[in-house]
Specification:
Elements: H1 2-33, H2 72-75, E1 81-85, H3 93-97, H4 105-117, E2 119-123, E3 126-131, E4 137-142, E5 146-154, E6 159-166, E7 171-178, H5 180-190, H6 194-199, H7 204-215
Antiparallel strand pairs: 1-2, 2-3, 3-4, 5-6, 6-7
Length: 236
């Protein structure tokens, strides 16, 4: 009987071992087929455990050299007035002669009003015309805006009229300008280089004026010397 039980247990254990081996064989094959995991590489951090190992260079504070820029006067030329005044008195001659008639009072009064309220100003940047009641109507044009210039001399060149045509088509009129040839020469020196040639300048009277300037009989059409502005020094 004991021999039978031992034989039965032996057979049961062998069968269980056979079943366990058969069951685990596919799993072992699957594990063997999987790729081996690669160990992650070591990560290098920017942290320096030894702060004294690499000392930072010290910043040396050296005085910076101050570079002086160009003077303001060389960048922007100050505005200077070449001519400023009322229309020529010659425009009152003919209206004055008409006072012998009743109708002549009106044009003579108008010419006197122009003498009182009209002002012409020519600078190195612009032309300014003040007219109207008490000279409150002011018109200004810049030299770069002038496209064409027409002129007409009166009273043997003592005075003259000018009409400026601007690039936008508008016009500005100056009547009875005194010192006509001198002012005209300066105006032509300020406008664009192509304007005098397109206008037919210089004409014969302008050439005669230039000869007088060269001989010293007439003053040159240039700006007066720029006077230095006195600087006030504060008292200590």
């Amino acid at each position: 009987m004991k021999l039978f039980l031992v034989a039965t247990c032996t057979l049961s254990g062998a069968a269980s071992f056979a079943l366990l081996g058969a069951a685990t064989t596919p799993r072992s094959a699957a594990l063997a087929a999987m790729p081996a995991r690669v160990a992650p590489a070591a990560i290098r951090a920017a942290y320096n455990p030894d702060p004294m190992a690499k000392a930072r260079p010290k910043k040396s504070k050296e005085p910076k050299e101050k570079v002086k820029g160009p003077a303001t006067s060389t960048l922007i030329a100050p505005e200077q007035t070449f001519f400023e005044g009322p229309p020529s008195m010659t425009e009152t001659l003919i209206p004055g002669l008409s006072l012998f008639t009743v109708v002549g009072v009106i044009p003579f009064t108008a010419s006197l009003a122009r003498q009182a309220w009209t002002r012409y100003k020519i600078t190195n940047r612009r032309i300014e015309v003040a007219s109207g009641f008490q000279g409150k109507d002011v018109v200004q044009i810049l030299w770069r805006e002038v496209y064409d210039v027409k002129w007409l001399r009166r009273y043997g060149g003592a005075a003259g009229d000018m009409v400026f045509t601007l690039k936008d088509g508008s016009k500005l009129e100056m009547r009875s300008v005194s010192q006509f040839d001198r002012n005209l020469a300066y105006i032509m020196s300020q406008v664009d280089e192509a304007v005098p040639e397109a206008c037919g300048y210089p004409d014969k009277p302008a050439l005669e004026y230039k000869e007088k300037v060269a001989s010293g009989a007439e003053p040159a059409p240039v700006l007066p010397p720029l006077e230095a502005t006195p600087v006030a020094v504060a008292e200590e």
